[in-house]
Amino acid sequence: MTRGFDALLCDMDGVLYRGDVAVPGAAEAVERLRRDGVQVLFCTNNSRWTAANYVEKLRRQGVRADEDDLITSARVTADQAAARGFSGRPAFVVGGEGIREALGAVGVKILEEDDEDVEAELVVVGWDPEFSYVRMRRAATFVRRGASFFATNSDATFPAADGDEWPGAGSILASIETASGRRAEVMGKPHPPMADTAVRRIRKGARVAMVGDRPDTDLALADVNGWMKILVLSGVTDAAAAARLDPPPDVVLESIADLV
Q1: What CATH number matches the domain at 74-186, 3.40.50.1000, 3.40.50.300, 3.90.1150.10, 3.30.420.40?
Q2: How far apart are CA 106 and CA 28, in angstroms?
Q3: Which of 6, 11, 114, 246 is catalytic?
Q4: What is the pTM for the complete model shown?
Q5: Has 238 been annotated as catalytic?
Q6: Is 11 a catalytic residue?
């Protein structure tokens, strides 16, 4: 199967791990693909963690990676903020260390809880396990007053280590969109900012496959770019749901371990 592609975009949550629990055989599969000459890039919509955090998490699970192998929605969002002139301007951020560090690195001034007298020009929403009513209210108020409105991703849930699905950034985003009456511009998969970043990082002329567990993000990203679609059942999609997909994936596997 590896002969059908030269580059693989690999989702992380639900493909390589669930929470902090590694998917059995995932690390070995990645190494085998690399030995076969496949370029492997890790692509995640989760903006909570920094790139360094992800490198360390993958290392603990036996997956060799460095920051250049990663495409994160946090970095994509920060790149878009910088390209649109938000460096040096105030932003209200709902999210974890990953998105805050990425925005800070491009000079965005992140408002803290006690910055009550500063008006945000940008609101950025990602996954935030400490999300509160107060933060929802402040974000929605800034958006209603005209702030630009970005979301790192719109994934409603993510696969957790206990086998359940936990609320994701999309669930937080929905509350702010409802309260503000506006829709955010989404940066992560399958939207153009993430897609364009991935295209720039893939080796020129490579035949590309996308492996993921979410049809609405991972497979949709492959669809818009004409890439091979590989769905794994180790995340949020089960076999019954996979059988109902139209159009269907090119390949359905129990896990990425079966790819090799």
Answers
A1: 3.40.50.1000
A2: 36
A3: 11
A4: 0.93
A5: no
A6: yes
